[in-house]
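G., before I forget:
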Amino acid sequence: MNRRTLAVLLLLAVLVASCGTGSPPDRAQPGDAASRGTPCEGTGDDFPGDVKLARCLTEWFWSQRFQENGGTYRPITRFVAYQGANGPDCGGQAAVPENAFYCPYGHFIAYDAAWLKAMYDQMGDGAVYVVIPHELGHAVQAQLVEDFRFNVERELQADCYAGAALSGLIRVGVLNTEQGDEEELLANLQAAGDPTDIWLAPDAHGTPQQRQQYFAHGYTEGMGTC
Ligand SMILES: [Zn+2]
């Protein structure tokens, strides 16, 4: 078995028919993404490898989707790991610790590496495969119609895109899922930067239930429903 195996994300009713055995978080299955026609190298057998692979595979997924629709996906320009408060600012706004964000000014993503690593250690590699595809979902939004009344709509659509990208990658065999735990996914979505549940708040991301629901929606139905 040498396909990349992604733990944690056995989130959905359709996939959790046999849930409850509580298998431990999976680590480090050698991957062969490159041999399956992706440009992505590495096996994702440690935190830096998973971060790199999550970014590469998700961008590969979106470049394919754009191409199918007669467009061209524009990759992010930078993928910045920062520590605590030393992150890059975005349009004059300082980066904050314990966060990951997409910045439309410069079209880049930055993440607090220690924060993401801590989630990875605590919750398994699914943390990386929720946070990075979510932020790349914002990079995709920036290239599509930008018409959201509320920030929460933007955030939930990014969750939906993240779910769609993950299921797409699983479908073509570059990622595998293993038995995981819905609560772990929920925890991941909560942890992925969720300052408030107030619908109208400018930084609202949606309730954990909403986030899980939108993620699952993209996962089962695909990007067209996002
Ligand atoms: Zn977001």
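The first strand starts at residue 5 and ends at 6. The two ends are 33 Å apart (CA to CA).

More on Monday.
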